[in-house]
Design goal:
2 domains; 374 residues
Amino acid sequence: MIWSHVIGQERLKKQLEYLVSSGQVPHAQLFTGVSGYGALPLAIEFALGLLESDRIDNKDLSLGKKSQHPDLHFVYPVVKKGNEKVVFAQDYSSEWSEFLDTQPYANYTSWFDAIQVGNKQGMINVGEVEKLHQKMYLKAFYGKRKVCVLWGLEKMNAQASNAFLKLLEEPPKDTFFLLIAEDAELVLPTLLSRCQQLTLGPIEAAALKDTLTEATQNADQLLTQAEGDYYRLCQMLEQSENSEREMILVEGLRCAFKAKGNKAIVEELMGWAGKLAALGREEQKAFLTYGIQFFRDAFFLNYPLNQIVHFRSDTDFDLSKFAPYVHPENIHDLVFLFEKTHYHVIRNGSAKMLFADLALKLTRLINLPQKQQT
């Protein structure tokens, strides 16, 4: 088996490979542990191995694409959309595929943020279990086996748990259920008794270190703080990178404010543009994406839309004081400026010209006065 999307967990990989080679794979297995330890990607890669999918050998395929196998079924907690009376996991299949591609080590909170649950509780309901029951009794498309990966077993309500228990007690032939839970204590005891339980521990430090680049600052400190949790490591790296992006953007904004009517500051402004031009292309794109969200958040602060503001300063920058400078007269052009620059960066435009142009236009737009309401 090839574990191209699984970081570390060598002991469990060998254990699962032995179960397959010896023909002793139980029909129901429960993977427990912190999401950042990798239970979800581990279960998916194992499922593809059970299905003998040729996709498992393709290291270039993303996890979301590898998972699009007709005999691989997913169940995960969801919420109703709008006024719909019934909702199923497949209604969120595109969001799920993107989630697997971008953050398969993330937790339930990240998934609920991705599907915008708001104040609702993501659940697995009895209708989902009944639908799964029908699917698992159908003939397999390829080979003989069918596999269900159920993520969030503790999010299954009591009625659904009882219905699912019946399915585990009388499973269809050649079907396998790979269940995932962060906290086994929240799972119905009778369900636990029907599963072989595998507990994931922290990812080995060496394996986590291999995910970092040589340029990563404070790598040893980050690895210690991550405590074997890849998702936590990613969050800390993102926070560190966003701190740098925030400092660069704030520096540019201060130059832009000072440059109004002061030609002497233009040289300083061009120095800022040169700093951006010297960044790697991927970091340039990340900075521009960060800037777009920054201006949107500033704009939203002028209205009762605080609940959708994502900005959290790592440098004690007070966005609320800056927000009045982002208003209906310039928000569209500010976002468009950063989006257009991002577009040309992707297409290998001259970085020096692109960021010099961005700096000058940013100066004009950020100093644009808001029209007085009449």
